[in-house]
Amino acid sequence: MPISLFRRKPLFNEAQQQQIVAAIKGAEQHTSGEIRVYVESHCRFVDPLDRATEVFAGLHMEKTAARNGVLIYVALKDRQLALFGDKGIHEKVGTAFWNERVKNILGHFNKADYAGGIARIITETGQALQRHFPYDKGTDKNELPDDVVFGR
C-alpha cells in the first residue's frame, strides 16, 4: 500500500461537519426545499458564483421537483463563497436575499467560525424555504443527500 508523504488537513473536523449536517437536517424538516454545502480549498474561477453554478449542475440539484434547491459554496483557503438558489426559490426571494446572507456569513468567516457561519446561513435559508415551500408530510421526500460535499 502506498504511503503519502503529504497529508491534507481536513477542511472541517468531525464535530464541525456534524454541526453543518445537523443544520441541514433541521432546516429541511420544515420545507420541501433542499440545501447542499460544497466546500473546497481553492476556487478555480475568478467569480465564485460561476463555480457555484458549475457545482450546482454537477450535483444535479436542478432536478428537485419544485426547483427549490440551494447550494452554499465555500472555497476556504481562497476565502470565497457564493450562494446559488435554483429558479423556484430565487424567483421568490430575489438577489437581495442572497446578498444579505453573504454579508451575514462573512461576519462568522472573519472570526474563522466557518462551520458556525455555514450553519447560520443554512438556518436562515431554511426559514425562507419554509415560507415559500412548506413541508408537506404526505408528499415531501428528501430529494438530495444532506452530507457536506468536499472538493479539492
Write the layout of secondary structure elements.
Layout: H1 14-28, E1 34-40, H2 48-58, E2 69-75, E3 80-85, H3 87-109, H4 114-132, E4 148-150
Parallel strand pairs: 1-2, 1-4
Antiparallel strand pairs: 2-3
Helix pairs in contact: 1-4, 3-4
Brief summary of the model shown:
The chain has 152 residues and is α/β, with parallel strands linked by helices. Helix content is 45%, strand content 15%.
Task: Please give a structural write-up.
With 152 residues, this protein is α/β, with parallel strands linked by helices. It has one domain (14-134): Diaminopimelate Epimerase, Chain A, domain 1. 45% of the residues lie in helices and 15% in strands. The protein has helices at 14-28, 48-58, 87-109, 114-132, and strands spanning 34-40, 69-75, 80-85, 148-150. Strands 3-2-1-4 form a 4-stranded mixed beta sheet, with helices on both faces. Residues 1-7 have low confidence and may be disordered.
Work out the helix count.
4
Helix content: 40-55%
> Can you count the beta strands?
4
Class computed from helices, strands and strand pairing: alpha/beta
In round numbers, the mean pLDDT is 92
Oligomer: single chain
- Please state the CA-atom Rg, rounded to the nearest Å: 15 Å
Which percent range describes the beta-strand content? 15-25%
* CATH fold call: Diaminopimelate Epimerase, Chain A, domain 1
The SSE order reads HEHEEHHE
The largest sheet, given as strand count, sense and whether it forms a barrel, is: 4 strands, mixed
Can you tell me the residue ranges where pLDDT is under 50 for at least 5 consecutive residues?
A: 1-7
